[in-house]
Amino acid sequence: MRLDLFLKNTHLLKKRSQAKKGIEFGRITVNGKEAKPAYKIKIGDIVEIDYETAKVKFEVLEMAERPIKKSEQEKFAKLISKERKELFE
Questions:
Q1: What is the mean pLDDT of each run of 10 residues along the chain (89 residues)?
Q2: Could you tell me the domains of the chain?
Q3: Which positions ≥6 away from 52 have C-beta within 8 Å?
Q4: Separation between Cα atoms, residue 72 and residue 69, nearest integer Å
Q5: How far is CA 56 from CA 38, 59, 66, in A?
Q6: For residue 14, what is the DSSP state?
Q7: b/e per residue 61-88 (b: at least 16 CB within 10 A)
């Protein structure tokens, strides 16, 4: 499954286009390395997303072939860490 599609289907990002742009700008990494939107995500991969207000790291537990309910998110992506960022430093 493609990285950008996984991020959309698990509601980690709202749109596939957001995932694609985030990956292209280096704000989303897989296993500590830059990846492309078409990267084939695997179970056990560690994905880090640098949002505007937080940096989130999670482990891929299961593939989400279709959009899931937000309440099911924990079955597919296990949160490892969440670091809040200050907007005005």
A1: 94 92 93 94 96 93 92 93 81
A2: 3-84 (3.10.290.10)
A3: 85, 87
A4: 5
A5: 21, 10, 22
A6: S
A7: eeebeeebeeeebeebbeeeeeeeeeee
pTM of the model: 0.87
Distance between CA atoms of residues 32 and 34, nearest Å: 7
Q: Measured between alpha carbons, how far is 83 from 87 in angstroms, rounded to an integer?
A: 13
CA 74 vs CA 34, 52, 64, 71, 88: distances in Å: 24, 22, 11, 7, 31
